[in-house]
Design a protein that fits this description.
Blueprint: E1 11-12, H1 32-52, E2 56-61, E3 67-72, E4 74-77, E5 81-84, E6 89-91, E7 95-100
Parallel strand pairs: 1-3
Antiparallel strand pairs: 2-3, 2-7, 4-5, 5-6
Length: 101
């Protein structure tokens, strides 16, 4: 799934600062089908990262409602978090979508 944000510009952040960001306790996706797609895309991102060391863009939302993106490799995913190349953890509930390239 390719995610195209509606905002004209989305701030690109370094993966190393993700640990300093705050995320809302509720999921950014309200639709169950969208959540299932996101989970499948997370698994695809892990395969891309582990098998090919491939990068992708992850679009996510912080607690203040800002949409941001990070270009990184995903090493692992579980029901709650993505583990990124730097060892940073991104809550899956904050992820709006992935852009595979």
């Amino acid at each position: 799934m390719s995610f195209i944000p509606t905002a004209p510009t989305v701030e690109l952040v370094e993966k190393e600062i993700i640990g300093t960001l705050h995320f809302a306790p509720e999921d950014v996706l309200s639709d169950e089908a969208a959540r299932q797609r996101r989970r499948a895309d997370a698994d695809r991102a892990v395969t891309l990262g582990n098998a090919y060391h491939g990068k992708l863009d992850i679009y996510f939302q912080t607690a203040d409602g800002e949409t941001k993106r990070v270009a990184t490799t995903v090493w692992a995913a579980d029901a709650d978090h993505l583990t990124l190349k730097s060892g940073a953890s991104l809550p899956l509930r904050a992820v709006l979508g992935f852009d595979f390239y």
